[in-house]
Amino acid sequence: MPGAGQVGHHGAMSPTRLLPVLALLAAVLPAPVAVAAQVATITPPRTLELTDAVIVRKGPEGEPVRRWEAGTLLTSDRTRTGWVRVSGRFPDGHWQPLASPRWVPEAAVVAVRPLAPKQPLTRRVEARTYQLERASRLRDGPRGRPMKRWRPGTRFTVRRRRGEWLAVSGHFPDGRWQPLAAERWVPAAAARDISPPPAIPKPEGAERFALVDKSEFELRVVQEADGQRQVLYRTTVGLGMDDCLPEAQGGNCYYTEPGTYHVRWRIYRPDGIDWCIPESMADEPEYAADLARGQRCFEGVLGRFALNIGKSYAIHGTRDLASLGKKESHGCIRGRPADVRKVWRYLREGDRVVIRE
């Protein structure tokens, strides 16, 4: 038999001589975990958004290349522990590949679209006008660096939107629209859309008009097409008093005269249409107390929508709902604000307004 520590005829090695060999191998070979940590994991293509400003690097913990601001959109299909490899981004709203892959910290990104990453995330919208409901800072991108501060009530226009952010295309610093020198963004939650509602489409060749029936105190929107007449909408209205005041009260006469009129212009004021006491009504007792305290104008009392039909007449809203179905106005046709809004959407400039007894 072989002696202790010798190799037998089967080539076996004693445990005491095997241990040093195993220790040597462990020291030379890299650990499996360490190898895996250096391998990038392939992921489904994703579109990500930076939640913080970061330094873009050539590799994980690698050489810095440039700074990207919060809100930057990018695409990725690989990760490595704590890092994300960037394959492309959206500098003008459309995807562009990077010339060389770059890396950003995984903790600084959130997924905004898991599928179809090469589709532009910023979508064009119909031009709209907004008003800030609270003070807000303009930013150079969604969640980007804060820039100029705008006060509540500031109005601006928008043609693009990204998620919960609005791209500001222009504003009204002196009551007239001016474009911004550089695109800025505001949170949609801080603003209210004050754009006029869209017109209700009219079939080709159809004619619409408003019929005011004085005997019924009713306004109807009528449409004629292909020899057919259809009432699209009807609502109760208030009319002129059809009488003259006593001489002691100014002697003015207020009628809603029958006839055919036309919509001369449509009025929309997001904060409401004001009404001011004209000089011709200054002697009427109804307004004596208001004029005595220096109030001649009343903000928003005519609602937000009106249609001027000529001869000092208009179809407009009112706060005095108890006057509907009665002859109490100075000649105008009053309606509930929501109903006048609907009529405003149906009619266009030039459409007929027929008033009949």
Would you write up a description of this structure?
With about 350 residues, this protein is mainly β. It has three domains: about 40-115, SH3 type barrels, CATH 2.30.30.40; about 125-195, SH3 type barrels (Roll); about 205-355, L,D-transpeptidase catalytic domain-like (Beta Barrel), CATH 2.40.440. It contains four helices and 29 strands. The protein has helices spanning about 15-30, 30-35, 290, 335-345; strands spanning about 40-50, 55, 65-70, 75-80, 85-90, 95-105, 110-115, 125-130, 135-140, 145-150, 155-160, 165-170, 180-185, 190-195, 205-215, 220-225, 230-235, 240, 245, 255, 260, 265-270, 275, 295-300, 305-310, 315, 325-330, 335, 350-355. It has a five-stranded antiparallel sheet with strand order 6-5-4-1-7, with no helix packed on it. The chain has a five-stranded antiparallel sheet with strand order 13-12-11-8-14, with no helix packed on it. It is elongated. Mean pLDDT is about 85; it is low at about 1-10, about 30-35 and about 115-120.
Strand content: 35-45%
Number of helices: 4
Mean pLDDT: 86
- Strand order within the widest beta sheet: 6-5-4-1-7
| Distance between the amino and carboxyl termini | 133 Å
Please describe the biggest sheet, giving its number of strands, its sense, and whether it closes into a barrel.
Answer: 5 strands, antiparallel
Instruction: Based on Cα principal axes, name the global outline.
Output: elongated
Amount of helix: under 10%
Please identify the structural class as seen in this structure: mainly beta
The tally of strands reads: 29
CATH first level of the largest domain: which class? Answer: Mainly Beta
CATH superfamily of the largest domain: L,D-transpeptidase catalytic domain-like
The CATH architecture designation of the largest domain is Beta Barrel
Stated plainly, the CATH topology of the largest domain is called L,D-transpeptidase catalytic domain-like
Number of domains: 3
Work out the radius of gyration: 37 Å
